[in-house]
Amino acid sequence: MIPPEFCFLSNLQSLELYNNQFNSSIPSELGRCTSLTFLNFGNNSLTGVLPPSLSNHNQLVTLAVHDNFLFGEISSNLIANWTNLNILFLYGNNLSGSIPPENNLTGIIPPEIGNMTSLEKFDFSTNQLHGALPDTISRLENLNYIAVFTNKLSGELPADLGANILLINIGFQENSFSGVLPPKLCGGLSLQRFTANGNNFTGPLPDCLRNCTEVQRVRLEGNHFSGDISKAFGVHPSLVYIDLDENEFSGQLSPMWGECKNLTYLHIAENRISGEIPVELGSLAQLHDLSLSSNELKGRIPTELGNLRPKMLY
User: Fold this and answer.
1) What's the rounded Cα separation, in Å, for the pair 290 and 311?
2) How far apart are CA 100 and CA 58, in angstroms?
3) pLDDT tens digits, 199-213
4) Alpha helices in the chain (DSSP H)
5) What's the distance, Cα to Cα, between the start and end of the chain in Å?
6) Cα torsion angle, 261, 266, 272, 276, sign
7) What is the pLDDT of residues 101-149, one digit of tens each?
8) How would you class 212 by CB atoms within 10 Å of its CB: exposed for 0-12, middle for 13-18, buried for 19 or more?
């Protein structure tokens, strides 16, 4: 269990107990540690509710209780004093109800979220949030991480999302988003992880994605994306994993895919890709899973793909 004796450390500012096997509740006595600015209990087996005494932490900057077994509703009184909060991780629990408006958040993500100008990371994945992302989220100039995957969010994304911020991580997967992706979504060219699979997105990918040389992981399968595949991507030396299955991409595969030397997983099945398979794919020494099935490819299968054995090719 987490020892309640921590409450005697009146000057305690940072308490990090993540990645352990604690299986008790969060002791209410922690409410006495009013100097706390950083509290991380993530990835344990904690149960019970968030104790009301946590409302005493008006200096709190980071609170992470993700990946536990916490339950109950998030009380309005609980977070009313968390005016300095920059990072809040609640995902991977059984919490319910609406997110209270005192921190400019509610169950449908209200426009007031744009007032949280210090926010750097926004992660409310694996919950029951619904509604759309408000346009005001584009005001968060310090935001670099947004993850809202596995919710019930819908509608189109704000048209200027990414125009004024350097997004490193984007996680929209497993929702009901629709429409085209904002043209400057990755305008900062700092994108490393981009997942939007399992939605209803349409149209071409943003032009800026072609120039995101630091991107490592892309999952866009199960949408209705279209456009010329050869114009959507460039040379991405850090790219490890990309899945574009079950979309409507057209055009021909560029030989530049052979320059993505760290690729281990390349899926572009069930699209409208034409032309021949580039022989350059045979130079991807790390590739172990290649899927080009259900397209309009023609010509011969390059003998160079034999260099990829023993691999999974289909």
Assistant:
1) 8
2) 16
3) 999 999 999 999 999
4) 76-79, 229-232
5) 50
6) positive
7) 444 334 577 777 788 788 888 887 887 788 999 888 888 888 999 999 9
8) buried
